[in-house]
Structures are given as C-alpha cells and as structure tokens.
Amino acid sequence: MRIWFIVLCQLFALLWAQAAQAQEVVDVAKITCDQFLAGRVGDFTSMSFWLSGYYHGRRSNTVVDVSAVQKQVHSVMDYCLSHSDALVMDAVKKVIEAAK
Q1: CATH number of 32's domain
Q2: Which domain, by its residues, includes 66?
C-alpha cells in the first residue's frame, strides 16, 4: 500500500511539473485596446513595459524612464478608452510619437 502511495505522489509531481511549464503565446500585433484594458492578454504592467521597450528599441533608445513609461501607459489607456477596436501597438506608437 505504501508503494502505491509513493508511485501516486511521483506521478502527481511529474504531471504537475509538466503543467507548470506550459507557456502561453501571444501575438502582440493582434492585441486590441479592449483586450489590453480588460487584462485578457496577461499582466498589464508587464505588457506595458514590453510595448514601451519594443518601440524605444526600434528607435535605438535603451534608456527606460520609469516615470515617463507610467505617464505613457496612462496616455495609452486614455486613447484605448475612446478607441476600443484599435490595436494596442498602434495606440502606443501614436502616444510615443505625440510625446516627441
């Protein structure tokens, strides 16, 4: 009986480890403002910093000004509230270009 319990525990641990390694793949280019605001595509803060880093990286700017990113996030949110069908990447591009 004890051996069955040990085998069952090992099987459970093996299955749990495989489930924990599962990854979600997101095509950021297809995220709409509505999905972004509703938090349906992952952690809001992580997505915000990723989007900011992506656009700043395209401009060869490796400096991250956290307070500026937070302001830009609020600007993107404002834009997205009035353009729920727009793509988030377009919203971020417009906000960053307006801040130049």
Answers
A1: 1.10.890.10
A2: 27-98
In terms of pTM, does the model score above 0.85? no
Count of domains in the chain?
1
Full DSSP string of 33-76: HHHHHHTTTS-HHHHHHHHHHHHHHHTT-----HHHHHHHHHHH
DSSP structural state of residue 29: G
Give the tens place of pLDDT for each residue, 24-67. 777 889 999 999 888 888 777 778 878 888 888 888 888 878 88
Q: Tell whether 47 is covered by a domain.
A: yes
Asked, for residue 11, whether it belongs to a domain, the answer is no
Answer yes or no: are the C-beta atoms of 80 and 86 closer than 8 Å. Answer: yes
Q: Is residue 4 over pLDDT 60? A: no
